[in-house]
Known about the structure:
This protein has a domain at 43-71. It is built from 3 helices and 2 strands. The protein has helices spanning 3-22, 25-46, 48-72, and strands spanning 78-81, 84-87. Strands 1-2 form a two-stranded antiparallel ribbon.
Amino acid sequence: MLPKPLAALGLIICLLIALHMMLGPAQRARVDDWLRGLRVRIHQLLDFSGRRRDARRARAETESLIRRVKASNPLPEGEWEGNVYRPKSFEPDKRKLH
């Protein structure tokens, strides 16, 4: 029951691809633009942009939380060496670790 419709669908897709290959460059560009627009509308319909919106909202909330934590717990005085922060009260451990 399922193999015949699936085979028919495959045949239709192959014929559409063959037709697309026979088009001239200008007509192929028009068809490609139309297909791209169709894809965008389908994505909007399925709300893939909602996931991006949720990701942006989560990123903004995370940045807000980081700012609040930095404001409430400022770093002690010290220096930056590249991406390493060394407080002035830093004393390396004198124990031999190996």
